[in-house]
Design goal:
Elements lengths: L2 E6 L5 H14 L12 E5 L15 E8 L4 H19 L6 E8 L3 E2 L2 E2 L1
Helix pairs in contact: 1-2
């Protein structure tokens, strides 16, 4: 039950969104027990993101939420992978990307909780 939400302050094409969604799905298994079959992705472009008081340069804020635990080694690998995707696909420099990890002890789906 992973959810990856990203906000960027630049315009994206549908092809870029599709590529990012695909690459995130291919790599979600970096977190043990997580698969693309359960992955939900949100991609929002044209967001007002200010970093260091400026919104002129391409910037991204990404949240990775999972049911259960994310080990430090998995989070480190995910950060490297996600930063690389956003830099390659959108030209956002890695020093302008924040990634937040959140572990959930309760997660609902299909009218019940896990």
């Amino acid at each position: 039950m992973p959810f990856i939400s990203s906000k960027v302050n630049i315009a994206m094409t549908e092809e870029q969104k599709k590529t990012i969604r695909k690459r995130l799905g291919e790599n979600i298994s970096i977190i043990p027990g997580k698969t693309e079959d359960w992955l939900m992705v949100e991609i929002a472009d044209h967001c007002d993101l200010y970093f260091r008081g400026d919104k002129k340069l391409p910037t991204a804020f990404i949240e990775v939420k999972v049911f259960g635990e994310i080990r430090d080694t998995a989070a480190s690998k995910m950060t490297e992978m996600i930063s690389g995707i956003y830099e390659k696909e959108l030209g956002i420099k890695q020093n302008r990307i924040y990634i937040k990890y959140e572990e959930a002890g309760k997660w609902g789906w299909n009218g019940t909780n896990f």
